[in-house]
Amino acid sequence: MADPRFFANAGPFALGELARRCGAEIGPGGDAGKRITDVAPLDTAGSEHISFLDNRKYVETFVASRAGACIVNAAMAAKAPAGMAILIAKDPYRAYAQVARAFYPSPPPEPGISERAQVAAEASLGEGCRVDAGAVIAAGAEIGRRCHVGPNATIGAGVVIGDDCSIGASASVSHALIGDRVILLPGARIGQDGFGFAMSPEGHLKVPQLGRVVIGDDVEIGANSTIDRGAGPDTVIGPGTKIDNLVQIGHNVQIGRGCVIVSQAGISGSTRLDDFVALGGQAGLTGHLKIGAGARIAAQAGVMRDVEAGATVVGAPAVSSAEFFRQVAALGRLARKKERE
Amino acid sequence: MADPRFFANAGPFALGELARRCGAEIGPGGDAGKRITDVAPLDTAGSEHISFLDNRKYVETFVASRAGACIVNAAMAAKAPAGMAILIAKDPYRAYAQVARAFYPSPPPEPGISERAQVAAEASLGEGCRVDAGAVIAAGAEIGRRCHVGPNATIGAGVVIGDDCSIGASASVSHALIGDRVILLPGARIGQDGFGFAMSPEGHLKVPQLGRVVIGDDVEIGANSTIDRGAGPDTVIGPGTKIDNLVQIGHNVQIGRGCVIVSQAGISGSTRLDDFVALGGQAGLTGHLKIGAGARIAAQAGVMRDVEAGATVVGAPAVSSAEFFRQVAALGRLARKKERE
Amino acid sequence: MADPRFFANAGPFALGELARRCGAEIGPGGDAGKRITDVAPLDTAGSEHISFLDNRKYVETFVASRAGACIVNAAMAAKAPAGMAILIAKDPYRAYAQVARAFYPSPPPEPGISERAQVAAEASLGEGCRVDAGAVIAAGAEIGRRCHVGPNATIGAGVVIGDDCSIGASASVSHALIGDRVILLPGARIGQDGFGFAMSPEGHLKVPQLGRVVIGDDVEIGANSTIDRGAGPDTVIGPGTKIDNLVQIGHNVQIGRGCVIVSQAGISGSTRLDDFVALGGQAGLTGHLKIGAGARIAAQAGVMRDVEAGATVVGAPAVSSAEFFRQVAALGRLARKKERE
User: Fold this and answer.
1) Can you give the pLDDT at residue B91?
2) Same domain, yes or no: C308 and C178
3) Are A245 and B157 within 8 A, CB to CB?
4) ipTM
């Protein structure tokens, strides 16, 4: 179903092979040899496609689906329509991800350095790298193996990048140390000066920004997001953290492992997020805060105080989600009451 | 009045010719042969300039203006100062746009491919295209006639672009099918991976993003805006929709015809906007919503529920505009009352 | 302490020399000849480092610090631990900035034009400029002395740039007149079309944007920020104004001297800021407003009315900060009260 102009399908696969790859169990009566040619959504899938059900909202679509196979949890398996093979998984969405990665893997880039790229003689590139036209890699940069530096991307002097990274089109990186398997989407800006000025009516004096950006393994950073380098300490993005598009990370921010930061959120200088924090779209955090592990910050929240581990906060100024919805309800009642009076 | 370093004036024009081009009527006593050399704002226009009045706030400026001609609606015509010729139009701003386009047309680009551009042998370019230095066009891309690919822009493999499009400096496009007369401003990011992960404490697993971005005719997309490709279905931007700078459009979003999306707004995955929806600056929509035709979402609104066709919603969480202003008033009264107690 | 891969240290300096450079006084018993090799944060500084104390929160860290020297105000000097030399300054952060600039100056760029840059024959470049690989400078552009045009940056036709400017990687500039010592960080977008359309169900008609962007001396503009050119009047950024990342400035906006605009803020068309206005992160201003000198707009504020000089406004819709906190308190009480009933 994926447009072959853009995606190369590595299938077909036997159902049993897909079950093995995603750690699922074939449901009663399923044929491990059944040929599956592609993934597809429940409503458009055909008899050689595999789909998934992850949301009760779509049970009707599931029951009516013509998919040849579907990944579901144990509770849903019995509702499968006749002729549909079932793969039973605890987390059907994760299993789907693995199946989709089987059909559409991300192979290492085809190695080669474009004649139109500029790679400084003093830069080092590991084996198997691809550097596209217009890319500029400055002196002293060290890039690992099998990295892809996209068209018109810029890697500044002294930057260190690990193995199997992808630097998107027109992205720029300076003053940074980057781990393995890091993905920067197009236009991401890593390592530029933080916003540091000694303010005064005589003129705001620029303060040298003397830190770096340190990015752990398996991080993804979205298109046109901006991560400033530290002012003295480093700005740190922990391993496995995923950052969406148009996100701003200020200088000296420290983000732990496995955090998820949705589009257009912003984190002011020196704030620290512990592991597995989730930050909703357009949320904003002021500077010098501590956000505990596993905290959840709602979309558009405005956080001005520390947040405890595991807490969920909503609104601006942000409060607990229970308090927020009480406030919303109370204000709604008040507005109606005043109207009746 | 426009700086000739940046803008080439195609005038002068006779007043009658301008009236014809914008569908306006010359007011009583107006001379169709009057020579008009340029457009200009009411307060700085001189005797050979044409201006417009579209806002009651500026009636005094109009009455004092020395503009040789002015586009107004019928009600305002009688207030024109002596010596000013009048063009009467139902929609003076639209008529002004047409007159300004007469003076400053957008001709097709001067054809030619820079020696410093990289165009893959397997890409196709229609007649009359201009490709600037540093642009990179990958294999299998198909670009229509009279398109302008700006400096350092990147067009990915297999991308299809219609006729008379303009791709701004350092913009990037991948996995996309684009109609005619589409304008991408500098730094726009089209077609990169959506933000799709199967979340887990063991590590967030990247889900292949197998859809495309499909953009209709006459769409404009602002500087540094980001439009992710679909996860399986496509991300769709309907014909005539105008998107401002720094806007985020998530994967699988479907936007109808003629929508207007102001700067820094964000739309989460799988939300659908029907035709002619207006979205104010910094507004945010969560995922999987339906926004009916003609709905108006205020600036900074936070929308978490479906919005009916024609409705206006304000605030976060967004409510009807009447309800929002009742809430604001009630809260103001409450704060004052508590203070007095 | 700064990573020598990225930063070149111009030290060491004698303490007396540093005192002279930042206008501070050496405290009692201090040795003007003491050798200082670097700046460092209080908690990691050693005996040859200089640090600063600017925030009461860090007094304990100061008392325990092993820094060889520290910049403080007069009130704090007596608390210095034994062996620490003291520099006394009215504004310790500003003095620190000057000391850090002594260690890490910003010398003019190493002159030279990359063979991989494209500079039009009809463009002019002052002496001492550096133009990196992939940069594209169009005909008629006039660039002053000692400017650095970074890799893959684009300077459009007719643009005028003063002396000692820095244009970041992949930034783009068109239709603009730029002063001296201006810094554009990577991906900044200056001078593209404003968002101007004559809206109509028949189709939104693009209105030619015939103004420029005029940027004063000593302005800094953050990564991926967007500044649209005027629609007829110019968009103006006054001298000494500092703009953070991902900020949107609409067409015809006029910003005075010394304003500070934090990340992800947005200013709609034709709004005017007088001198020294401060705008918090993610704040939004609607169009056609006047914001008086020295006004402070809180983070995430939504401003829909003019703001008086010197006022502080908070919230959306924005009110005085006193009123905002009264409202927050009143709403909190109301929510608790309703709960108890």
Assistant:
1) 95
2) yes
3) no
4) 0.96
- In this prediction, residue A68 carries a pLDDT of 97
Q: Which of A175, A204, A251, A288 is catalytic?
A: A251
Q: What is the chain A residue with the closest CA to B247?
A: A246
What stretches in chain B show pLDDT beneath 70?
338-341
Tokens of B170: 């350092």
Three-class DSSP category at B50? strand
- At residue C336, the pLDDT reads 86
In B191-224, which positions are buried (b, 16+ CB within 10 angstroms) versus exposed (e)? bbbbbbbbbeeeebbbbbbbbbbbbbbbbbbbbb
- Alpha carbon of B50 to those of B36, B102, C63, C207, C229: distances in Å? 7, 12, 70, 15, 21
Residues 6+ apart with CB under 8 A from A275: A238, A256, A257, A258, A259, A293, A294
| CB burial string A293-324: b at 16+ within 10 A, e below | bbbbbbbbbbbeeebeeebbbbbbbbbebebb
> Do residues A339 and A219 both lie within one domain?
yes
User: Does the pLDDT of residue A186 top 80, yes or no?
Assistant: yes
Q: Check pLDDT > 80 for residue A338.
A: no
Residue C341 has pLDDT above 60, yes or no: no
Q: Which domain holds residue C249?
A: 171-341
- DSSP lists the bridge partners of residue A49 as A38
Decide if B104 touches C, using CB distance below 8 A.
yes
CA distances from B83 to A228, A270, B26, B70, B89 (A): 58, 63, 14, 11, 19
The 10s digit of each residue's pLDDT in A245-273 is 999 999 999 999 999 999 999 999 999 99
Exposure string for A32-57, b = 16+ CB within 10 A, e = fewer: eebebbbbbbbeebeebbbbbbbeee
Q: In this complex, which chains have at least 3 CB pairs below 8 Å with chain C? A: A, B
Model confidence at A336, pLDDT cuts 50, 70, 90, reads: confident
pLDDT at B340: 59
Last residue of a domain, one of A103, A123, A138: A103
What is the number of CB-based contacts under 8 A between chain A and chain C? 185
**Cβ atoms of B302 and B316 closer than 8 Å:** yes
Pair (A204, A89) in one structural domain:
no
Which pair of tokens denotes residue C120? 């039009």
Q: Which H helix or E strand runs over B323?
A: helix B321-340
Q: What is the mean pLDDT of residues C28-40?
A: 95
Mark yes or no for CB contact C282/A266 under 8 Å.
yes
Q: Say what the pTM is.
A: 0.97
- Tell me, yes or no, whether B98 and B186 share the same domain: no
Per the CB < 8 Å rule, is A6 touching B175? yes
Q: Is residue C136 part of a domain?
A: no
Exposure on the CB side of residue C205, measured as CA atoms within 13 A: 17
